[in-house]
Amino acid sequence: MKIKYTLAVLAALLMGTYKISAAVFTAVGGDWNTSATWTHTGVDADNIPDGDDNVTIGSGINITVSTASQQCFNLTINSTATLNFSSVDQFTVKGHIVLDGNITGSFTGTGFIKSTNPNTGIAGSGTMSITGNLRFNINEFIQSTVVINNTGALIIGDDGTRGYTVGIYGNATFTDGADGTAVGASLVCYTGCVLTVQNGLMNTFGNVNSSAGYCADNHIIFDGSDSYNVGNCGAFENVTFSGSGTKTLSLTTPTVALKSFIIQSGATVVGSSAYNTAVRCDFQNSGTYLGVSNKFLSLYKNFINNGTVTTLLNGGISFLGTAPTQTLTGTGATTVGYLRCYSSNHVISSIPVTVLAQLNMYAGDFNNQSILTLKGSAVTTGTLTANTVGNTVILTCAGCGAVPRTSSGYYNLTLAIPGSGGTRNLVANTVVAHNLAINPNNTLNSNNFDLTIGGNWVKNGAFTASPGHVITFNGTTAQTISSGIPTTTFTNITVSNIAGVTFTSGSYIITEALTINNGTFNTGGRPFTLASSATKTARIAPIGISGFINGNFTIERYITARDTTYADFASPVQSSTILDWDNELPAISYISHPPGTIASANTYNEITDAYVPVTSSGTALTPGQGFEVFLSGSFTYSPFPVTTMNTIGNPNQGDQDLTGLISNTAQGWNLVGNPFASNISWASVYAASGSASSGLYDYIEMYDYTIGDWHGYTSSDAIEIGSSQGFWVYGLPGHVPVQLIIPESSKTATSNSSLKSLKVPPYFKLSISGADKSIPYSHTFKVTASGDASNGLDNGDMPFRASPNLATPAMYSMLEGKKININSFNSSNDIYSIQLKTKVNVAGNYKIEASGFDFLNEYTCIQLEDKVLNKTIDLTNQNTYAFSMAPADNTDRFIVTFSKSNSCKSLAATNGDIGSNFSNDIEILPTEQGNLINFNLSETTNSLISVINVLGQTIVNPIAVDANNQSVNLALPEGFTGMYFVRIESTKGTVTKKFVRK
Is residue 26 pLDDT above 90, yes or no? Predict the structure, then answer.
């Protein structure tokens, strides 16, 4: 039963209007049970107060109760007066007490009893300090500023079935001591009361609460070590837990406090198992708060923890405030199962917090400004802010794969999964404004996302890079990169820090690109490799104007397996020697005694028009210098295996002026090389070198090991020159100076591993090669015609250059005493003939194959004359001619004639007997799939069947047959249309027939 008192009722109580006693006693001093102690009015049999008498103890009077079972009705103790109990068993006041003085002493029996008359109470400003039981056997009140310190038990009602209520009003303070016994009774803390509970009050009675509507400024202090049943009417405005021992909340409603919730140092509070503990004011803890299973500490305002807060794995803290901001402050450790943020609240944490299960951002923003340790995962439908200066997020969950999303990244991020470790995956492009630490047994997986770091990289675990992803170092002070084992592999690194980035430990590999926008990238003496594989070669992107590299790189160059052959190389670093390449290339020889013994590597001297052998492993790899290197698997000329060649040194950087390496004194050809660890664009290089005005022809050549010769390209071909690739440039006669500049800006974004690129050049071509596989090499002579070309030597004529492979045949023309490999003439000529110089170094069967007719489409008749055999071949009808030749044969054997006439002599009219019978005994017929070839030969003849298009390109792999009387079905590639030639070659002759497939 709840009691509400009005001021009128309280006044009536204090005036004694509820009871007219038999006598009124006034104390003069002494023992209660002595008549000399009293003066009184009215009739009393023994002159000693009893249950129907009113008693007043005046100011300065001290009364002692030493006899058991004394009593009175109303008791008034004036200021400075004292009523003292001397170990008696009980004392009873049946009416009300006005206490302005003191009640002291102890009880050994039933205790101090306030009973009989309902709605009476204790008022005044004095203090009751007793040891023993304090009994309220009826509905009572305590009001004004009375302080009751009771170290015994509070008992409301003589039996547990009576639901009496004791109400506390005003600023009264009530301190309970031992366990009470009245189950179902209530102690109500009304407006302004201060209730201190030391032991079992909350456990014994049904409710200690604040009555609805009367909660202003009440304060309950839990100072014992029992369970406490708190909150029947809605809230205590102020709650304090003090003293030692553990206090367990046993809530009947979830709300605990509206104005203050304080856990003092030394106190331990265990949360309620019935409700989430909802604190609608600041939560202030200097002691210990322990959560219970499946229950949450629900906070609506600020969290101030200078002690210890711990919840179970399945419990935690929920932030539910509607104010703009809730804060977590203090110096104490906070460990929770779940940390949940609801609403649109902004939660700011400046204390270390450990989350065991999950950080749940259902809405709003959790702004970490200290240390946030996530032993579980993070659900961030709301916002996690973790980039405040000085904060750290530590991820320690092995099974939680995601690095949590944040609004603007992290300040410090640490992966510290204990035990056997685990992997964390980026789930978005992520910024770490300061330091990133990957602890031992931990793995960070970039997971196809970019990572930006403003501080130091500390990797003592593992890092998994994704293709295409970028790690950017963009701090404003010097950054360091340190790593334990194993080697750290990056795909892309970008440096955008004017203060620079330095390696301090570990070894490193880049598989795609290093980009330096500004600042110095310093290897610090640590191993650093730009890797090259069959599919990809790492590169250094164009370096910014304030960027710089300091330290040695190992720059790899993947080389495919091949037969023994030459390749063009160049060094991408400074201050290295050919010994650097010798360490990986299987067979490099520096002995040169031609013609019997030839060195493995050569440079080229344009002035002497000769290869210059490299005779020492100490020969400098001058940046921009090209080298022809013979590749062999051993010194016995076994095939060259797959090899990754390394060049070690400080990479070449900045615009490279190669002018001092080239000239145009003799033939004009110069062997140079790409000086960068990156592909470069010939078009960009040619433009930077000033084009023809600086004496360079817009044409380069790169060696093709498959044919033992070079392919040529112009700037319009959009050709790229690979990293470590050597190439040939041509200095135009008469230009001084000849200039070659390769700028940083000429670097491209390509990361391929090809040492050359193939492009169909815009020329009519005559290729001389072996007619069978015994001579695998070839050389191509090129012809072009235009209206601005001359018939003599001009800038359109490119000199011939012998292949370093002596087995390669040669074909060229002569103009004004120079060997010409690209012959240009004026297209106004109706007929134009070129005397060819043809030379072979190995005796055998050869063929001349014509292609690129479309590039000379004005000339409808192109004939090849064999002066040795007195033959003339119409190449427009039969584009291949087979013949035998030896090294000593006349080099002036062939003439090629270009005519705009439509009356070419047929091959059959001038071919004589050679091959005529062979031609008559072979039938080539078109079929739906391709062609049917019928052989009707008198003896078995080794023959080679091939198919080429009008550009001379092979479109069906050659077929070798031992032909006699048989048929061969020839299938064309699916989807092929246009003109093509079927050619059958043998020692008895060659048959070529033209077909068109629509």
Answer: yes
The pLDDT of 797-814, averaged and rounded, is 87
Closest CA to 428 of 410, 455, 440, 454: 410
In angstroms, the CA 694 to CA 582 distance is: 36
Residue 484, phi-psi category: left (phi > 0), alpha (psi -120 to 50), beta (remainder): beta
Q: What is the dihedral of CA 672, 673, 679, 680, to 10 degrees?
A: -30
Q: What is the mean pLDDT of the chain?
A: 85
- The two three-digit tokens of residue 922, written as one number: 């072979």
What tens digit of pLDDT does each residue of 626-643 get?
999 999 899 888 999 999
Q: Are 309 and 334 in contact (CB under 8 A)?
A: yes
Q: Calculate the CA dihedral of residues 398, 399, 402, 404 and round it to 10 degrees.
A: -70
Q: How far apart are CA 395 and CA 352, in angstroms?
A: 13
Return the structure tokens found at 952. 């001379």
Could you tell me which residues come within 8 angstroms of residue 619 by beta carbon, excluding any fewer than 6 positions away?
A: 577, 578, 601
Phi, psi for 617 (deg, rounded to 5): -70, -15
Alpha carbons 219 and 367: distance in angstroms, whole number? 33
Q: For residue 436, give the H/E element and its range.
A: strand 436-438
Percent above pLDDT 90 for the chain: 50
Tokens of 289: 């708060």
Render 811-826 in DSSP notation, one character per residue. EEEEETTEEEEEEEEE
Strands (E) in 607-705, as ranges, are: 610-613, 627-631, 643-649, 656-657, 669-673, 680-681, 696-704
More confident residue, 59 or 384: 59
| Contact of 871 with 912, CB cutoff 8 Å | yes
| Banded pLDDT at 754 (limits 50, 70, 90) | low
Which ranges of 637-725 would DSSP assign to H, the alpha helix?
682-688
Q: How do the domains of the chain map onto residue ranges?
A: 560-642, 656-671+679-696+711-745, 764-912, 917-997
Rg, the chain, Cα only: 52
Residue 73 backbone class (left: φ over 0; alpha: ψ -120 to 50; beta: rest):
alpha
Decide if domain 917-997 falls under CATH 2.60.40.3080. Answer: yes
- What are the pLDDT digits (tens) for 163-221? 677 777 767 677 766 655 544 566 677 767 777 776 544 433 334 444 433 345 677 78
Q: Which residues, in sequence order, are CB contacts of 704 under 8 Å at separation 6+?
A: 710, 711, 756, 758
Measure the CA–CA gap between 166 and 199, rounded to whole angstroms.
18
The Cα–Cα gap between 340 and 303 comes to 13
pLDDT value at position 13? 44
CB-neighbour burial class of residue 444 (10 A; exposed 0-12, middle 13-18, buried 19+): buried
Q: What residues contact residue 346 under an 8 Å CB cut-off, 6+ apart?
A: 324, 325, 326, 364, 365, 367
Q: How far apart are CA 82 and CA 101, in angstroms?
A: 6
Residue 147 clears pLDDT 80, i.e. is over it: yes
Q: Which residue has the tokens 């809730």?
A: 326
Question: How many other β-carbons are positioned within 10 Å of the β-carbon of residue 814?
Answer: 16
56-68 pLDDT, tens per residue? 999 999 999 999 8
Q: Could you tell me whether strands 102-114 and 82-93 are parallel, antiparallel, or unpaired per DSSP bridges?
A: parallel
